[in-house]
């Protein structure tokens, strides 16, 4: 926690990113509650509850789209789904990455060799075709299963980063001391290593989250998104399907990619801010 | 022999890792796809049944069995695996494609590879050069407003997927302003050949996809170069070079640029090796006739042979790039050679 | 080379200045500060000292006293957040060959104006030779690049020059083709010395060049440095915390403490008759190997922080003679006899005055 407070104080980038993500999360959580009455009780609205292509009006601030849903409702629901997928997949990837990274880094030896080789194999497989293959056949393509599939390809990177940090840290004097004094491995991991690794865990989480969201947009972009909700990536796909350009529907065309870009920038800024706090040399102006 | 010549042991270890990782990654991929609850022939048979309203008759089963043999889908999973590995690694045959039956996969890949390499390779090299130049300046003048602005822009762009940028470019430059074409690799009115109109058309079609890739990847090179330079600026030998009275331009060129060349060249090789991984969607968006487009075509009909072939190309190029670096580094950098010999 | 008489312009002089013709570098009231979050760190805070031609001037003091920062200031190598707050460094050198000598204030020169002076007139042997050579360049290129940058010698001349200098420090020509990591620490240090004298500079500033080396290598290198100095008629400013090295090498010594010059004199004067209580402590702390049981006496107390030097005399918190006047009034560096200066109230009239607070001059 102290680390986050310090990063907030030191880095304008971190502040910027946190504020943006904070606003978007609040929007995704609270706005649908307020907006539900406009969409007949559901966000996004059920297809066909309204007539398609209603022009923007007080009832539908951004109009309705081809399937007869309220466009603003789509946005809010899409934002919610996209952030949720990123969060779920990022958490899952972090969990697996932590287990792999800690076991490989802390135990070393043959276990490390096996785990690292396996991780490296996964890292060289291009993930996109496999993601597509899996999403094509998965029977119940809900938001959760999609997040799970995305996590399958996000964890190796987290594992590798965490392993490197664990190896760097386990040779430090205070860990050696704990070992010599006969503490159990688990106790050392949780009392000595984990607290010092929190910044790196947070960075791995942010990184996996971005990776998963990029993957999700890619999948949804070609029309293979979850079947139980609308994501921002799917909105892009739907927009091109409806000929949104010829209809001049700039809101549908430009807002989803713009919001996605904003999310990616914000998370990158948060990551960078933490990095700058850990390594002040990276800051723009040194030695103020 | 290995004990006496650590450098041999080093090369041997790298070579074993290379072979083993390619085998492992490819095996994982093979089984992932075979475990999918469908395959090209079954999917096709289903379509047939639906189209002609035929029942699961013996004649359909016979046809299916014929094609399963053609695509190596008969027998147990183990048999399929052994047969496929033998066919690919011993005979050098990736099998027939389904999307363009009976053309073998390698023919399809060869037809599309030049487009992918041309577009992605050129974009990566362009971004590398530009990123190093901009990053060098941003690091060197790190306390200026210019450097701060460049860095912030680069950080913002660095993690955005290129296809989102591409999408905006298509919308604004392609559809909105109508400046540049957004589909295909050349204008259909020209036939393929080394003629000026054709080449110009190819270049014109490459501008938008290449720009999208360059915008994102140049940001990454700027950031790595800048941070390498900033680390370098704290080195004693840079201060010493200044004390020698060398011109700043010479210090920048002979000391700073030279010293970051090794990590950055390594990075370039790795990126070129991995070039196909990230940018497949770009080809899809621009309907560009490269490997990404082929992969998309193939995957939608479960064309395992083609998908595995493209993935194999990708895995081998990533691993080969990193193997070449591992083999070349001790030859280029005397420090690494000494390090290997002392362990 | 330096046969022409100096035409130093008249400058405000100290009370008894050394012969102005012998004067090579005159550092006046120099302050080098660093901006930190905790305020200004006054690392060098009011140094006055004069370096004469053809002498080895030893700059001594505990680590953190500002001696390295002082020479970096003179070399104009101070990087942000450090800066030269005030002062002068008047350097006299033959600007255009033998046409005559000019005196410039190094602190006032622009970076483009200081660049031609470097190496040709003021050369530098850096503190950490370990890290001062570019790891990816051959030794030869790192020496000849400076030769080629200044003046218009050909590549062949530069190579000949380089090989000759390597020979002077006892390195075989094969070293030229090597990379830094292939050399030992002593060899790297020799390379930096060889590189520094390629252009026969008037002034050579050596910042703790032998500190990281073992004693045997240290001795050999010091001897080589003395030989080179004799052969090339160099003036050397030698920075070291090691009084034993100074005893061997230096003609004159300046003792720094807390960013200021405490005492200046010939080496024998300083060792035989140290005036400043701090110098006395330093001399006492040299282990005496003639005694059977070595008992080194240190100076009690800790070195003060450059963020807040003590008021009055900066040494007073650690000085056994400190009186009320020492706490209130900063003693100035004052001549006790020609060529001998000390900044201590004991050697002024104020010391015996009954009434406290009298001005000390």
Oligomer: heterotrimer
Relative strand content of chain C: 15-25%
- What is the string of SSEs of chain C from the N terminus onward? EEEHEEHEHHHHEHEHEEHHHEE
Distance between the termini of chain C: 40 Å
Task: Give a written overview of the molecule.
The complex is a heterotrimer of chains A (288), B (343) and C (361). In chain A, 73% of the residues lie in helices and 0% in strands. Chain A contains ten helices and no strands. The longest helix of chain A has 37 residues. Chain A starts with a helix and ends in a 10-residue tail after the last helix. Chain B is mainly α. Chain B has a domain of 187 residues: MetI-like (MetI-like fold), CATH 1.10.3720. Chain B is built from 15 helices and no strands. In chain B, α5 packs across α8, α5 runs antiparallel to α10 and α9 runs antiparallel to α10. Chain B is flat and about 90 Å long. The model of chain B has no long low-confidence stretch (mean pLDDT 85). With 361 residues, chain C is an alpha/beta fold. In chain C, 27% of the residues lie in helices and 24% in strands. In chain C, the strands form two sheets. In chain C, strands 6-7-8-3-9-10-12-11 form an eight-stranded mixed sheet, with helices on both faces. Chain C has a four-stranded antiparallel sheet with strand order 2-1-4-5. In chain C, α6 runs parallel beside α7. Chain C is globular and about 70 Å long. Chains A and C meet through loops of A and loops of C.
Strand-helix topology:
The complex is a heterotrimer of chains A (288), B (343) and C (361).
Chain A: H1 2-10, H2 12-35, H3 71-107, H4 109-124, H5 127-137, H6 143-170, H7 173-180, H8 185-221, H9 232-241, H10 250-278
Helix pairs in contact in A: 1-10, 2-3, 2-10, 3-4, 3-6, 3-8, 3-9, 4-6, 5-6, 6-8, 7-8, 8-9, 8-10, 9-10
Chain B: H1 6-34, H2 40-52, H3 58-70, H4 77-90, H5 105-140, H6 145-158, H7 162-176, H8 196-233, H9 236-243, H10 248-273, H11 275-278, H12 280-286, H13 291-300, H14 304-332, H15 334-342
Chain C: E1 23-36, E2 39-52, E3 56-60, H1 67-74, E4 82-94, E5 101-105, H2 111-114, E6 122-125, H3 129-132, H4 139-149, H5 155-168, H6 185-196, E7 203-207, H7 215-232, E8 235-239, H8 243-249, E9 252-257, E10 260-266, H9 267-272, H10 277-284, H11 324-328, E11 334-337, E12 340-342
Parallel strand pairs in C: 3-8, 3-9, 6-7, 7-8
Antiparallel strand pairs in C: 1-2, 1-4, 4-5, 9-10, 10-12, 11-12
Helix pairs in contact in C: 4-5, 4-6, 5-6, 6-7
């Amino acid at each position: 926690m102290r680390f986050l407070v310090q990063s907030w104080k030191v880095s304008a980038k971190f502040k910027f990113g946190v504020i943006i993500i904070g606003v978007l999360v609040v929007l995704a959580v609270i706005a649908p509650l307020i907006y539900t009455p406009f969409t007949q009780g559901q966000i996004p609205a059920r297809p066909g509850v309204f007539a398609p292509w209603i022009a923007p009006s007080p009832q539908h601030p951004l109009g309705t789209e081809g399937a007869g849903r309220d466009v603003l409702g789509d946005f809010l629901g899409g934002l919610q789904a996209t952030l949720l997928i990123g969060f779920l997949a990022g958490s899952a990837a972090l969990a697996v990455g932590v287990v792999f990274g800690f076991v490989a880094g802390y135990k070393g030896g043959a276990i490390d060799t096996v785990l690292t080789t396996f991780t490296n194999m996964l890292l060289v497989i291009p993930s996109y075709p496999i993601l597509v293959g899996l999403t094509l056949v998965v029977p119940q393509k809900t938001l959760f299963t999609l997040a799970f599939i995305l996590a399958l390809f996000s964890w190796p990177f987290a594992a590798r980063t965490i392993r490197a940090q664990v190896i760097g840290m386990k040779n430090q004097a205070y860990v050696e001391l704990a070992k010599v004094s006969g503490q159990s491995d688990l106790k050392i991991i949780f009392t000595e290593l984990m607290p010092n690794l929190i910044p790196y865990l947070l960075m791995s989480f942010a990184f996996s989250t971005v990776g998963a969201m990029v993957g999700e947009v890619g999948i949804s972009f070609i029309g293979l998104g979850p079947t139980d909700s609308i994501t921002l990536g799917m909105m892009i796909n739907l927009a091109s399907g409806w000929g949104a350009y010829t209809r001049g529907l700039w809101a549908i065309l430009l807002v989803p990619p713009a919001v996605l870009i904003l999310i990616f920038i914000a998370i990158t800024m948060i990551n960078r801010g933490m990095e700058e706090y850990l390594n002040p040399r990276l800051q723009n102006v040194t030695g103020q | 022999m290995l004990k006496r010549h650590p450098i041999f042991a080093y090369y041997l270890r790298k070579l074993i890792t290379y072979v083993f990782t390619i085998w492992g990654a490819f095996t994982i991929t093979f089984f992932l796809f075979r475990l999918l609850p469908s395959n090209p022939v079954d999917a096709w048979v289903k379509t047939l049944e639906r189209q002609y309203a035929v029942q699961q008759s013996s004649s359909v089963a016979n046809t299916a069995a014929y094609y399963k043999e053609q695509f190596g889908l008969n027998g147990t999973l183990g048999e399929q695996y052994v047969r496929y590995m033998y066919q690919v690694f011993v005979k050098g045959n990736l099998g027939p494609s389904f999307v363009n039956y009976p053309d073998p996969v390698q023919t399809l890949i060869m037809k599309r590879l030049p487009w992918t390499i041309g577009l992605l390779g050129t974009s990566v090299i362009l971004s590398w050069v530009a990123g190093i130049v901009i990053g060098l300046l941003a690091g060197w003048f790190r306390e200026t407003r210019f450097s701060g602005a460049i860095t912030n822009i680069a950080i913002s762009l660095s993690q955005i997927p290129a296809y989102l940028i591409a999408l905006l470019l298509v919308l604004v430059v392609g559809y909105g302003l109508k400046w540049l074409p957004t589909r295909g690799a050349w204008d259909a009115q020209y036939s393929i050949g080394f003629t000026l109109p054709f080449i110009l058309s190819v270049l014109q079609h490459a501008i938008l996809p290449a720009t999208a890739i360059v915008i994102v990847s140049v940001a990454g090179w700027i950031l790595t170069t800048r941070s390498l330079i900033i680390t370098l600026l704290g080195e004693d030998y840079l201060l010493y070079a200044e004390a020698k009275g060398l011109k700043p331009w010479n210090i920048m060129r002979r000391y700073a640029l030279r010293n970051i060349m090794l990590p950055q060249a390594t990075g370039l090789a790795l990126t070129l090796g991995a070039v196909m991984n990230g940018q497949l969607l770009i080809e899809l968006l621009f309907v560009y006739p490269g490997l990404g487009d082929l992969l998309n075509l193939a995957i939608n009909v479960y064309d395992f042979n083609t998908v595995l072939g493209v993935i194999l190309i990708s895995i081998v190029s990533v691993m080969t790039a990193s193997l070449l670096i591992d083999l070349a580094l001790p030859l280029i950098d005397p420090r690494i050679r000494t390090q290997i010999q002392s362990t | 080379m330096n046969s022409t008489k100096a035409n130093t312009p008249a400058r405000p002089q100290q009370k008894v200045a050394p012969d102005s013709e012998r004067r090579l570098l005159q550092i006046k009231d120099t302050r080098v500060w660093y901006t930190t979050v905790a305020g200004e760190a006054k690392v060098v805070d009011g140094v006055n000292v004069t370096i004469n031609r053809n002498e080895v001037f030893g700059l001594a003091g505990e680590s953190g006293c500002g001696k390295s920062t002082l020479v970096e200031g003179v070399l104009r190598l101070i990087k942000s957040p450090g800066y030269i707050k005030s002062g002068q460094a008047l350097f006299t050198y033959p600007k255009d060959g033998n046409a005559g000598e000019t005196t410039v204030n190094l602190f006032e020169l622009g970076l483009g104006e200081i660049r031609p002076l470097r190496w040709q007139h003021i050369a530098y042997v850096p503190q950490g030779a370990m890290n001062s050579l570019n790891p990816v360049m051959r030794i030869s290129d790192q020496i000849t690049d400076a030769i080629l940058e200044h003046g218009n010698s050909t590549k062949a001349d530069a190579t000949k020059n380089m090989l000759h200098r390597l020979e002077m420090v006892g390195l075989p020509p094969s070293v030229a083709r090597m990379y830094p990591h292939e050399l030992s620490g002593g060899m790297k240090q020799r390379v930096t010395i060889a590189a520094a004298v390629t252009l026969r500079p008037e002034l050579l500033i050596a910042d703790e060049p032998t500190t990281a080396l073992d004693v045997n290598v240290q001795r050999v290198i010091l001897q080589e440095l003395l030989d080179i100095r004799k052969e090339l008629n160099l003036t050397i400013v030698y920075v070291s915390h090691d009084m034993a090295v100074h005893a061997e090498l230096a003609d004159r010594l300046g003792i720094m403490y807390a960013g200021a010059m405490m005492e200046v004199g010939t080496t024998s004067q300083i060792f035989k008759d140290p005036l400043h209580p701090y110098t006395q402590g330093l001399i006492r702390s040299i282990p005496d190997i003639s005694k059977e049981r070595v008992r080194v006496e240190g100076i009690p107390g800790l070195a003060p922080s450059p963020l807040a030097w003590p008021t009055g005399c900066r040494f007073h918190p650690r000085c056994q003679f400190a009186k009320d006047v020492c706490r209130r009034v900063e003693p100035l560096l004052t001549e006790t006899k020609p060529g001998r200066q000390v900044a201590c109230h004991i050697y002024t009239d104020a010391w015996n005055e009954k009434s406290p607070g009298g001005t000390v001059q």
